[in-house]
Design a protein that fits this description.
- 31% of the residues lie in helices and 19% in strands.
- It is built from 7 helices and 8 strands; from the N terminus they run βαβαβαβαββαβαβα.
- Helix 2 links the parallel strand 2 and strand 3.
- The two termini are 14 Å apart.
- Bound molecules: D-xylitol-5-phosphate (DX5) and zinc ion (ZN).
- The site of D-xylitol-5-phosphate has 20 residues, from strand 2.
């Protein structure tokens, strides 16, 4: 069953000096989430946005957060974050020994729980936590950096995920895709069954494209 597609804008790609204007543009054009990449320099070889960034963003907009935790031991660190009802919080299943407990904890905060999978991580790792999921984040590049090339095998993985969710009565669980979501790739990802699209440097957040028209084109690609 196909759900309405949604846009989650990768905030690490947005020019900080234009944040306020960009946020207004996103609000006017129906962006559903702010995708917030949190990195720890361990799970991924980079650092990025943080807890204060989320707090500040909340003061200028009501768009919910889509917090993507690329950090080791997320269980110990979830309380650092201002997590609110309506947010998505995703944890990588490669980073936690007790994924089910972590997902439950996210839900106990009123947020939607999502499990993220690196390109090489089998979908099978999620089979016994499907009841605890509101979303599955399929990484379509290896996490850590913007501007990378799609790992082609992940397109089939989106299809497999949709099939597994539908066959087990989890039709309402959303699939998010993150990495190299260009207009061309977005069409293929949508056909494969993705619902939430992380718009970064490949599809939207680049000079001259982050406009009303650019968002319109992105929406057409994911429709
Ligand atoms: C990492 C990030 C990146 C990036 C996506 O988790 O979420 O994948 O911002 O944007 P692209 O790949 O389009 O630069
Ligand atoms: Zn991300």
């Amino acid at each position: 069953m196909k759900k309405t597609s949604q846009i989650s804008v990768s905030m690490m790609c947005v020019d900080v000096t234009h944040t306020r204007d960009m946020v207004r543009l996103m609000e006017k054009n129906g962006v559903s989430y702010f995708h917030i990449d949190i990195m720890d320099g361990e799970f991924v070889p980079n650092f990025c946005l943080g807890t204060d960034y989320i707090r500040q963003l909340r003061t200028i907009s009501k768009i919910p957060m889509d917090i993507h935790l690329m950090i080791e031991n997320p269980d110990r660190k979830l309380d650092y974050f201002d997590i609110r009802p309506g947010d998505f919080v995703s944890v990588h299943c490669e980073t936690t020994r007790h994924l089910q407990r972590t997902l439950q904890y996210i839900r106990s905060k009123g947020a939607k729980a999502m499990a993220a999978l690196n390109p090489a991580t089998p979908l099978e790792n999620l089979r016994y936590v499907l009841d605890d999921l509101d979303g599955v984040l399929i990484m379509t590049v290896n996490p850590g950096f913007a501007g990378q090339k799609l790992v082609p095998a992940t397109l089939g993985k989106i299809e497999d995920t949709r099939r597994m969710l539908d066959e087990t009565g989890h039709e309402n669980v959303q699939i998010e895709v993150d990495g190299n979501v260009s207009l061309t790739n977005a069409v293929r990802m949508r056909q494969a069954g993705a619902d939430i699209f992380v718009a970064g440097t490949s599809g939207l957040v680049k000079d001259g494209v982050m406009t009303e028209e650019g968002i319109g084109d992105f929406k057409k690609a994911i429709a």
